[in-house]
Design brief:
Length: 352
């Protein structure tokens, strides 16, 4: 069994530290990928610190990371989509049952038997799956994505979670030209949401708690920026949005955004604060508004999103870091101090 250098957390209060993990020997349908970059998602932080204990408790040691791009090192005998040396990417999913209605609809993320890239039962090696803060990963080829050659790889890595998580609900809720779309929280997910809403032709409004991000929001494609702590600024947009994507990682007042929807408008949560949010149902009832959620995206749609990014030259705005800076990066992410995604240069693992 091949070993791989990695970074793991030993407990919910331990910093991430260097370790060595086992990867399985590639089976006929498997692709072995040398990881070049891995994005840092706020979900990694939620998981490492066991903040989602009530929904999916973290099993330690935990090796996070589900925004993976790299090069194919080797392939199994039945692999047809890749050859050694090709670019390949892995997102939040590494397996599913392949037969249930969700899988048949290309929505593997909703399969009851879906295997997430980390902290999910590993049916090959036992224990739990280990993610992309690592030098390599082995996945079945169905769960490996093709990466357009024109994209910067450090900036392409975050597309595998932040990208698909914002692209998928926008497609589902028909974000197009002529629609007014809000994006709440200009972090890793939010900044991708702005790029997609703009690319899809919508009138795009960013809601941010950080006045210092205003110019960036406009540069990223926003038509307007609202500082959400400014009540006057907020009041101007009441009842006007077709769709709002909320990508905030912490508890906040959701009713303020529900009231910004027009009749029949939809607010979708992709942000996943650990604590429940309080919804005032009258905001929904009186204008037949809906409040919903969305989880990443299926494999076919992830490939569609990557191809869309290739065609439109869209990548995440990244700050590339060595793996040795990961604990500092988590602290900065908690302070909303990242423009707009950390991407780990996995070559830095060689020094461990
Ligand atoms: P992130 O980079 O940390 O961005 C979160 C942003 O939320 C911050 O940059 C900040 O934006 C805003 N924010 C933070 N604290 C806030 C507060 N107290 N009140 C209001 N706004 C606040 O995180 P991310 O990686 O984009 O992830 C965002 C959330 O999505 C996380 O909960 C993550 O677990 C979840 N997620 C869900 C899925 C899914 O499939 N549904 C997939 C990936 C991630 P401003 O500075 O602009 O206010
Ligand atoms: Zn993620």
């Amino acid at each position: 069994m091949p070993n791989a250098k990695a970074y793991s957390a030993a407990s919910s209060t331990s910093p991430l530290a260097s370790t060595v993990i086992a990867r399985r020997d590639p089976k006929p349908e498997d692709v072995e990928i040398e990881i070049l970059y891995c994005g840092v998602c706020h979900s990694d932080l939620h998981a490492v610190r066991n903040e989602w204990e009530s929904v999916m408790a973290t099993v330690y040691p935990c090796v996070p990371g589900h925004e993976i791009v790299g090069r194919v090192k080797s392939i199994g005998s039945a692999v047809t989509k890749f050859k050694a040396g090709d670019l390949a990417a892995v997102g939040c999913l590494v397996d599913s049952d392949g037969t249930c209605p969700a899988c048949k609809d290309g929505l593997e993320q909703f399969c009851a038997g879906a295997t997430f890239t980390y902290n999910a039962p590993d049916k090959h090696l036992g224990g739990v799956t280990y993610g992309g803060y690592s030098e390599s990963i082995v996945v079945t080829e169905h769960f490996a994505l093709r990466v357009p050659e024109n994209l910067d790889l450090a900036g392409a890595a975050p597309l595998l979670c932040a990208g698909i998580t914002t692209y998928s609900p926008m497609r589902h809720w028909s974000v197009t030209k002529g629609k007014k779309v809000g994006v709440v929280g200009l972090g890793g997910l939010g900044h991708m949401g702005v790029k997609f809403a703009h690319a899809l032709g919508a009138h795009t409004v960013v809601f941010t708690t950080s006045p210092s991000k205003k110019d960036d929001a406009l540069r990223l494609g926003a038509d307007e920026v609202v500082i959400s702590r400014d009540a006057n600024d907020m009041a101007k947009h009441m009842g006007s949005f077709d769709f709002i994507l909320d990508a905030v990682a912490a508890p906040h007042d959701i009713n303020a955004y529900i009231n910004m929807l027009r009749r029949d408008g939809n607010l979708t949560m992709v942000g996943a604060p650990a604590e429940p949010l309080e919804v005032n149902v009258f905001g929904l009832i009186f204008a037949r508004r809906s409040f919903s959620g969305s989880l990443i995206g299926g494999i076919a749609e992830t490939q569609e999103m990557l191809d869309f990014c290739g065609a439109n030259n869209i990548t995440a705005d990244v700050e590339v870091i060595p793996i040795q800076k990961i604990n500092e990066a988590y602290e900065r992410m908690l302070k909303s101090d990242v423009k707009y995604r950390f991407s780990i240069d996995m070559a830095s693992l060689k020094a461990e």
